[in-house]
Design brief:
Blueprint (H helix, E strand, L loop, with lengths): L8 E5 L3 H13 L3 E5 L5 H8 L3 E4 L8 H10 L5 E5 L4 H9 L4 E4 L4 H18 L2 E3 L4 E3 L4 E4 L2 E4 L2 H13 L4 E2 H9 L7 H15 L8 E4 L3 E4 L6
Parallel strand pairs: 1-2, 1-3, 3-4, 4-5
Antiparallel strand pairs: 6-7, 7-8, 8-9, 10-12, 11-12
Pfam families: Response_reg, Trans_reg_C
Protein name: Response regulator transcription factor
InterPro entries: CheY-like_superfamily, OmpR/PhoB-type_DNA-bd, Sig_transdc_resp-reg_C-effctor, Sig_transdc_resp-reg_receiver, WalR-like, WH-like_DNA-bd_sf
């Protein structure tokens, strides 16, 4: 049975446990999936792995500042980011916005204000980020974020290129020559085994969300997406 309902995931990056739990409770009551960063040793990697629809980010964090987290996450094309901080100086706000933050709120923040800003940004991003719909999953074209119901993952650049081409061409076969062109600009001087390695990695990634079975091989020709079970 395919999944037809998409649920936005919000990641909270906040070291104040009580505030973090309060925000999680508020947002979950609004129907969002919420994941909290509780260890700040690898914050950026943890955020990317969570593949969020939106990030709520404090600035005063251990190990790595919220400013630097904002810069690195935005460089990966992930967002939007709502900064929620006790720092109420204009210079801090301008710096955060310059680094790519989409909104800047100061503590204490009324829950209704936070919810309104979250909803607004999710609506805006849903209209500006092209989405490829494959029935039981979809892919955000700009960020390579793949969504399956309440689950989401970020595909690598090569995984995104392959998967998006398979979705665009479905149910037709994407021949190997086309994939060579998309990935490396040419099939000359490229070992065919490299493509097989990339397909193996993609299938391994898709196992995390139960989609590895969707990619089928047409021996000697190329690859295609098998129809989803919801149709």
């Amino acid at each position: 049975m395919g999944v037809s309902e998409w649920v936005d995931k919000i990641v909270i990056v906040e070291d104040d446990v009580l505030l973090r739990e309060e925000m999680q409770n508020i947002l979950e009551k609004q129907g969002y999936v919420v994941e909290c960063i509780t260890s700040f040793n690898d914050s950026v990697d943890d955020i990317i792995s969570a593949a969020p629809s939106l990030i709520i980010l404090d600035l005063n964090l251990p190990n790595l500042s919220g400013f630097e987290i904002c810069r690195r996450v935005k460089a990966k094309g992930i967002g939007p980011i709502v900064v929620l901080t006790s720092r109420n100086q204009l210079n801090d706000e301008l710096h955060a916005l310059d680094l790519g933050a989409d909104d800047y709120l100061t503590k204490p923040c009324h829950p209704r204000r936070l919810i309104a800003r979250v909803q607004k940004l999710l609506t805006i991003y849903s209209t500006i980020s092209p989405i490829l719909d494959a029935g039981d999953f979809k892919i955000e074209d700009l960020s390579n974020r793949l969504l399956v119901g309440k689950k989401s993952i970020i595909l690598s650049d090569n995984e995104g290129i392959i998967m998006k081409e398979l979705v665009k061409s479905s149910p037709s076969i994407v021949n190997k020559e086309k994939l060579f062109q998309l990935l490396w600009g040419s099939s000359q001087f490229v070992d065919e085994n490299i493509l097989q390695v990339n397909m193996t990695r993609l299938r391994k990634t898709l196992e995390e969300v139960g989609l590895a079975h969707r990619i089928k091989t047409k021996r000697g020709i190329g690859y295609y997406l098998e129809g989803d079970d919801s149709q």
